[in-house]
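Protocol step 4 of 6: record predicted structures for both targets in the notebook before any analysis. Target 1:
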Amino acid sequence: MLTVSDLGKTYGAGENSLTVLDNISFEVEPGESVAIIGPSGSGKTTLLGLCAGLDKSSSGKIILNGEELSRLDEDQRAEVRNKYVGFIFQNFRLLPTLTALENVAVPLELRGDKSAAKRAKELLERVGLGDRTHHYPSQLSGGEQQRVALARAFSNNPLILFADEPTGNLDPQTSVEVMKVLQEINDSGRTIIMATHDYALILKYPHKTLKCEGSKIFEVIQKAI
């Protein structure tokens, strides 16, 4: 599903350059759940964005479902994202003037889906928010907003779902509830890669853990299944 080879990302040039990722390599099989962990500044979010095609690497290679992202321009990467990728941001990125239903329906409508509202309602029901469809983000708890974001990310039925700190703004109980939804999605055969600092959750959920520090992956932990 995902192959990362000798990946590097550097911002700036010369004396002002900053290397965020250096010589990163790993593979993710279809249907795996993977956690990327490490301290702040270790490059977790950058790595997640590169793998999802949100940004372009400085060096190395990323192959996502057979597509080599490093050879694609921005428009081509967007096309790959639309076909294969879902992404959940840490700060939810919901539109405040739209209801939960409308937030989920927007990407469907942009793709010309004539049953966008129906599909959006089904997705909200799947994440346990069937009774909150007409509520605005300000009327929802943090956990509910995250589940709306999850439903929206899954609107294109992605093969792989990237999640940046999916429980970072949530209390422990709500974090468990969100992780259960992610687990159900993973159990349905979808690949999930998440960046997190929550060590308690990674002990229970992912198949594989990548430990990042100082711009490198220094350990890969494979859980026995």
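Target 2:
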Amino acid sequence: MARVYLIATDGDDIEKMCWSLFLQHDFPSYQTVWQNRVTPVTTRPAAMGFKSDAELAANGMDQHDMCFIQLHYTVLVHLNVAYPYRAIRPLSAEDFTHAIVRLCSATDVADELLGRVASPGTYDPWSEDRGRDARYAWRKTHQQLQDVRNYRNHLIHGRIFMSVTDSMSGNIYFPKIGREQKYIDWRSVAHSNPAAIMPDYASGHDILEETWHRLVEYLESNWKAIP
């Protein structure tokens, strides 16, 4: 009988840590896919290295399977980096931006993986350009997180947000996702009554929490469907 591997005992250090932090409760399908698609590409039980092309072929696999496990692990790395920011209060503008960028990077990689899975063998496993094509193909019919990516793009490529700081708590408030376009002109914040704009603002912590949960729910739902 083939051995059943478990992340808690057979994963690497990052996988084991993430399993206890959030995978087990919020993203359990990560382990199912890991068992079915990742461990067969490695040299377990001898080691946690990777099979050669010849070894992959002997087991009915190829370079697309190697590409898959790299994307799969990269999603986890982005989640792992973003996770600790959820505990920081108040969340600085720099930390808020980094956390949002990492979560959006997880969606970029996840959508490439899902696009490749939806069209097996279509996209060159070692081409970033073809990986982008896979991502865009998937997103033609899966736009659930596009508003988050638009927000990320504004944070990275646009002018900084005019934030509002609570002098009592130290919490920094930013435009909510989907409301950021209303406040490109800094005067719309600086010259406004705070009570008038606060319905469009939330603390960095709350925005990050909402984004985290939306992303993890998206991943869990789509990972369940990976064959």
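Step 5 preliminary note on target 2. The mean pLDDT is 95. The chain is about 60% helix and 5% strand.
Proceed to step 6 after PI sign-off.
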